[in-house]
Amino acid sequence: MNDRNLARGVFLIAVSLAFGLQSLRYPIGQFSHAGPGLFPLMVSSLLLLIGVITVVRSRFEERVGLNFNIRNIALILASLCGFAVISAHLNMIAGIVFLVFCSAFAGTSYSVARNLKVSAGLIAVAFAFHKLLGLNLPLY
Amino acid sequence: MDVLHNLAFGFEQALTLQNLMFCAIGCTVGTLVGLLPGLGPLATISLLLPLTYSLPTGGALIMLAGIYYGAQYGDSVSAITMKIPHASSIVACIDGYQMTLKGQTGLALFTAGVSSFIGGTVAIVVLSFLAPMLGEVAFLFGPTDYCALMLVGFVCVSFVTTGSLLNGMAMCLIGVLLGQIGTDVTSGTQRFTMDLVFLSDGVGLVSIALGCFGIAEITKNLDNRNERTPFNGKIKLMPTWAEFKRIVPSALRGSVVGSFLGILPGGGPVIAQFAAYAVDRKFSKYKHEIGSGAIEGVAGQAAADEAAARTSFIPLMSIGIPENAVMALMMAAFVIKGIQPGPNMIAGHPDLFWGLVASMWVGNCFLIILNVPLVRYWLSVFKIPYSVLFPSILFFCCIGTFSVNNSLDDIFITAVFGFIGYLFVRLEMDAAPLLLGFILGPMLEENFRRALLIGRGQFTAFFARPISGTLLSLIGVFIVWQVAAFFLKAREATAHS
Fold first, then answer.
1. CB B304 within 8 A of CB B119
2. C-alpha to C-alpha distances, B408 to A80, B204, B397, nearest whole angstrom
């Protein structure tokens, strides 16, 4: 499905169905006494309509390729999750070092020396937040 | 005279040592953020939002406002010197960069600085007179009117930020749906929580904002692999008297245009710049030079930019409805501090309102010092390579998310929204309307249900009141016009082929 406009429409339909079908499970009520399901159902129906229009329109528009680079976003998300896991189980200093070293793979060049410097700088900033602003960071 | 008295009171608040410091920090951070690529005012305000828990209310708001209008200015510096525009400085790239090519970088920066100062000053006068007046009008608003006003906001923001009503509305609606996650206030039902306890309070605004703006933006920049060439040119700042005389009328024109457009829903700096530029092209004495590096091409848009950034506070503070995504975040900051922006705010918290207004002028003075004599030092920021910058931004995203609830789990939610934000980037869907939808969603639902309750389930109630009736009719006309324009364009295209 290498068509950006079509993918956009499908994405909108998927979101609207996810919320719309779920909202049917809540009491809908009446217009004069709306239940918790009514408003989300109305909003997701509107979104579904926009999704369908987008899909239909994409058939009449010129195809635009979908440029999806999984590598960089995967590296960035991995470094964020790794930071959270390491900070929870070990400490945040190790988490920061992991964050810098892992995310740097997504950059144009990789240098261990530079990563060490950046890590040291960020650890210093974290200590400043901890001591000066009183943020409760699990640093060690 | 009341206004003067109130302004004096505001200056009393703004000129305390503590608030001066917050204003200076806000302006400096804002300028820095404006200069750096990949970190706009939206991401920065959401980053610093959690930190404001521990700051005094007035100081926190003054600082966040400073970041916003400081970033507007910083933006134009990178646009003028290197043609790197951010969201709000697209117009500065045209004549500003042409002036750089002609070797007049200093003059362009000086013009932008002075014009911003003029624009900001005019806007503050407008703000002091208009906001209290509008606040009184807001008392006439009923639930149907609020619903209609929010819908107007959605339509305008959708159209202005994305250029496509359909895409923008889709994002607004997704935002509204995300705002539904959590406990329903009226019935206590848990909605869309997937039985996860931490979702019963809803998704955190900071996670959404940082995911969709911070992380998605970083990844986009990394995908593009843009290597910036540092600006190393020498600059001469001071203009001649003849040049200076050309700045003032254009800046005044821009200030008026910007102040007016900033108030309208969906307005704000971006549209104000284009409008001011168009006005200059029509009415300036040097209109034939605009486009090829004219002073007027920089002055008018810079003034409009700053003016609109400040007058966009008017709807937030007088009616309680933010008109763009940054204002939605500002609203979140007010709410964090336990203040509901709206008609009661000016009467209930005069120290905050007038203190904020006065601090904007103090911020104006800080910005002119930061940006005119010190601008050459700021340019060295461009020498920081992106490979150093982006791990640092990621780190700040993590700390920002963590500090809201002192919970590392929130970082996972931010990561999820980072992925969704990246999807948005790749699908060419602007996330700014989503944020507005997210913040206004619960308010919209509450007023919608209340309006239907009062109207006994009849939708005609929305058209029975003059304010909501007029606003909804305007939306209707706009949608019909958009659909007609689409079909006309399609017919033309088929006729050509």
1. yes
2. 10, 13, 12
Model confidence pLDDT, tens digit, residues B307-334: 888 888 888 888 888 877 788 888 888 8
CB-based contact, A121 to chain B, within 8 Å: yes
Interface confidence (ipTM) of the complex? 0.93
Interchain proximity A136–B406, CB inside 8 Å: yes
Indicate the DSSP class of residue B225. Answer: T
Q: B 203-232 residues with CB below 8 A of A?
A: 215, 218-219, 222-223, 225, 227
B395/A36 CB distance under 8 A: no
Q: Name the DSSP class of B55.
A: S
pLDDT digits (tens, 9 = 90+) for B411-427: 999 999 999 999 998 88
- Give CA–CA dist B383/B389, Å, rounded: 11
Distance between alpha carbon A42 and the CA centroid of its chain, in Å? 25
Q: Is A104 on the interface with B (CB under 8 A)?
A: yes
Question: What are B230-260's pLDDT values in tens digits?
Answer: 455 566 777 788 888 888 888 999 998 888 8
Give one DSSP letter per residue of B380-402, joined into a string.
Answer: GGGGS-HHHHHHHHHHHHHHHHH
Give how far B453 is from chain A: nearest CA, Å: 5
| Phi, psi of A46, rounded to the nearest 5 degrees | -65, -40
Cα–Cα distances in angstroms (integers) from residue B429 to residues B74, B129, B342, B423, B426, in the given order? 25, 37, 31, 8, 8
| Cβ-defined contact of B427 to A103 (cutoff 8 Å) | no
Question: Are B397 and B209 spatial neighbours (Cβ–Cβ below 8 Å)?
Answer: no
Domain ranges of chain A: 4-60, 70-132
Q: Decide if A72 touches B, using CB distance below 8 A.
A: yes
pTM above 0.90, yes or no: no
